[in-house]
Amino acid sequence: MSVSVRIPTPLRKLTGGADEVSVEGANVGEIIENLEAAHPGLKERLCDDNGEIRRFVNVYVNDEDVRFMAGRATELKDGDEVSIVPAIAGGK
Questions:
Q1: Domain 2-86, CATH number (from 3.40.630.30, 3.50.50.60, 3.90.180.10, 3.10.20.30)
Q2: CB-based burial of residue 40 (10 Å sphere; 0-12 exposed, 13-18 middle, 19+ buried)?
Q3: In this predicted model, what pLDDT tens digit does every residue of 33-58 receive, in sequence order?
């Protein structure tokens, strides 16, 4: 099944400037693997050495944070929208 993945600005250099790409996958983990196959370098920016989504990377499926769902095992259906949002910190 194909889902739309929204790519944040800092990672667009890996997608040839595309802000959105279509990727096949039954769950978030498969999407990450297929993103890596199509756009090498994305996985290392999204996942830690254990393959888990990094603390400072937020992944949403249809506006729902996957951390409150099943994480990488969160199931997807055709037409879902996955958003990758890097955490922002700082300030006074």
A1: 3.10.20.30
A2: exposed
A3: 999 999 999 999 999 999 999 999 99
